[in-house]
Amino acid sequence: MPVPKLWSKLEDAGDVTSPQLGTGGALVGSPTYEAAKFNNGIHSDIDNEGCTFPTAPNNINNDKGTIEFWAKMHYTQTDGDHHWIFAFYEVDYGGIELFFNKSVGGFKVQVVSGGSTVVYIETTGMTWNVNDLLHFGVTWDREGNDIGGGKTLLLKVNDVEEASSTDTWDTDTVNANLYIGIRHYGTLHSDMTIDNIKTFDTCKIDFSDRNDEEFLYSGPIINSDIKWYRSVNWNEGNSHGGNINLSSEIISNELGNIFDNVIDEERIMGTTEYRKIYVYLDKEVVLFNLKLWIDQSALSPDDEISICTGGVTKEDTQEDAKNYEYISPASFAEAVVLGNLAQSDYFPIWTRRIVSPYAVPWHHSTFKLLVGF
Fold first, then answer.
1. CA dist 71 → 111, 162, 240 (Å)
2. How distant, in Å, are the alpha carbons of 145, 254, 259, 262, 327 from that of 351?
3. Which of 38, 111, 200, 322 would bridge with 119, disulfide CB 3.0–4.6 Å?
């Protein structure tokens, strides 16, 4: 199964501001939290009450993706009001919405581009009772390549296809947050309890894992699943650094040799050097609370290796790195927490070497950067 870009259990306000995966959002109004599928979910029973998550940092767009969640229903198909379940679109831009359409007594998904609905699908003949638990899976691919059968838009409820379309649409900019439990205007509340939302930047069409609160992956983590890469600019000097260079992998046994040999001038005068590297995950899994520390047991006694991860960006250079604070965690117990690392994601790390003046004759700095969770 694919790994979500955004995952929030929605059990309380903390799951909104600090979700299990992805970039956190904010509450809208004062929603309550009630029992749903797994534990609590967010309940929106009046307008201007729900939550919102940013789209860009969580890679939510109207080109391709999936949103799934559980809902405890507080109305039936005969309800006399519209109820917005999720929406991400702003007038004159693109986006997608899911809502209960009172006119047909079913659920409607619509794709918006340039402020107008360009594709929509609706369920027909569905029935359910108050307090029923329904699992929703909305998947889209504007070009119709990855869902199957040329489909571009798909709605599954309890892993059963209820509506789909093969109509395509043009790409468009998304200029809005993802709103949960309300429309982007704050109106037409969902009147349901939404639980355990997950969003993907791929097309997920198999929801057989819907009864698992978390998500499944196959196989253990092995060393080759965690890769190391150089930064784009590997030349020494203030311009060293920048984003990840996926064409320049550092083989793990070379990681302790990212600094050059210490020459006589550096040994006598002393020197401070920096290297920006990246740790990258190459497996369909999420490593929670990934930690980093340094094994300096084989390091020259006149050298010191330290690292910086806090406040580091993917764009910064050595000129920025000189002003950062560095630490030398020597064990798992002292390790710095990088955070959650998902497939194809990466963390930037600044590594600093200080060679003391009048260091021992020609020597080579050898150390190990270690990660664990």
1. 21, 16, 49
2. 43, 14, 9, 16, 10
3. 111
pTM: 0.71
* pLDDT confidence of residue 266: 76
DSSP 254: G
Nearest Cα to Cα of residue 367 among 337, 341, 328: 328
| Residue 252: CA count within 13 A, CB half-sphere | 11
Determine the structural domain holding residue 355 and report its residue range.
223-372
Which CATH number fits the domain that encloses residue 319?
Answer: 2.60.40
CB 236 within 8 A of CB 273: yes
Distance CA 66, CA 85 (A): 15
Q: What is the CATH number of the domain that holds 32?
A: 2.60.120.200
Main-chain dihedrals φ then ψ at residue 7, nearest 5 degrees: -140, 120
With a cut of 90, say whether residue 29 has pLDDT above it: yes
How confident is residue 364, by pLDDT bands cut at 50, 70 and 90? low
Q: Are residues 244 and 277 in the same domain?
A: yes
Residue 218 scores a pLDDT above 70: no
216: left (phi over 0), alpha (psi -120 to 50) or beta: beta
Is the same domain home to 149 and 39? Answer: yes
> How far lies 86's CA from each of 52, 69, 79, 273, in Å?
9, 10, 18, 50
Among 167, 200, 233, residue at a domain's last position: 200
> How much is the average pLDDT of 194-222?
85
Query: Number of structural domains, the chain?
Result: 2
Is there a single domain that holds both residue 267 and residue 169?
no
209 is a domain residue: no
Q: Quick one: 194 and 258 in the same domain?
A: no
The answer to whether residue 134 is domain-embedded is yes
